Amino acid sequence: MSRTVYPFYSSDISSLARALKRQWGEESQPPGHLQILNMLARAAGFQNFQHLRAEHDRPAPAEAKATTAETRRLLRHFDAEGRLARWPKKFSEQRACLWALWAGLPRGQEWNEPAVNAAIRALEAFGDHVLIRRELVEGGWMGRTDDCRRYWLLEPAVPEAVAELVEQVCLLRAGAS
Do 31 and 111 have their domain in common? Predict the structure, then answer.
């Protein structure tokens, strides 16, 4: 299981040490893991560790609108550059992520197989562009000739349920470039 990293910063290490010493002195026995996390958070100016976590999980002010919990969950499949970092296990999540990949492909052109592979590789980071190409064709996002020599994008309407994910992934890509 991956662990979420929460950065910790204290502008004054001396006051941090004093606050920790005072809190530790109030304990009758050595504090446990969660108690130490809470002590560190309080010494840094938060109410408790949960408050520190909530502050770090809050969207950055530059983001135009807050994302829904579903979109945040789906964004975990993408890296900071908007590339698909892993293939989701759930079918519904795979479909949502494919919409975001489809939105990143160049419009108005046909590709040969090496060109479509390169375009897809630029949008994924887990190393299976063939899986994505096949899913895009079978799912109706991309068309191809019977001999698999020419590929083109189809233009289905983006479902409202995934529009926010598509928008957020596009923002990640724009920020990375």
Answer: no
